[in-house]
Write a structure and sequence with these properties.
By secondary structure, this protein is mainly α. Helix content is about 75%, strand content about 0%.
């Protein structure tokens, strides 16, 4: 289903987070994980985008979606996943990331994003009116404005490398 324009800002941020998951997954599979380099990048991404993203969802999207009985169980599950993910991201700040934690972060974050895109957003678009979605979009625009000017780039140690250099 084509994404409603009110939810596109969240979907764009989902793409950024999935790109992080792909890069981290490839590094883990190749056995080329520098935990300190990943710690810095993960901490920066959480502070500049993902933390704001979670707050915007919890303040604007989840309450609106919870009014629909069909979406309430999905919202409850997503809120629980936010708690787990915040704990995993906190390990970046506390410098306790290891390969197992990085794997857990990658798997949990990518699964969470897919659940939001495929279940929550699709359900919202089927159940909510265009006006209700537009109202959510306006609220999201304000909630996400704080992080709109950031540009997150992988550091040298966390960039994808061509297979010939891997």
């Amino acid at each position: 289903m084509l994404r409603d324009k009110s939810l596109i800002p969240l979907s764009h941020q989902h793409q950024h987070a999935l790109a992080l998951c792909v890069r981290l997954d490839r590094a883990l599979l190749a056995g080329e994980v520098n935990p300190e380099a990943w710690r810095r990048e993960i901490q920066q991404i959480f502070e500049q985008e993902i933390g704001l993203h979670f707050a915007a969802e919890e303040r604007e999207v989840f309450p609106a979606a919870s009014r629909y009985p069909e979406l309430k169980p999905i919202v409850d599950a997503l809120l629980g996943e936010h708690t787990v993910l915040r704990d995993l991201f906190a390990q970046a700040s506390s410098r306790t990331l290891d390969a197992a934690t990085l794997r857990s972060l990658t798997d949990t974050l990518s699964g969470h994003i897919r659940k939001e895109e495929r279940q929550l957003f699709e359900g919202m678009q089927k159940l909510m009116s265009k006006d209700e979605l537009a109202g959510i979009g306006k609220s999201l625009e304000q909630a996400l404005a704080e992080g709109a000017d950031t540009c997150l780039l992988p550091n040298q140690a966390t960039r994808l490398r061509p297979k010939s250099q891997a």
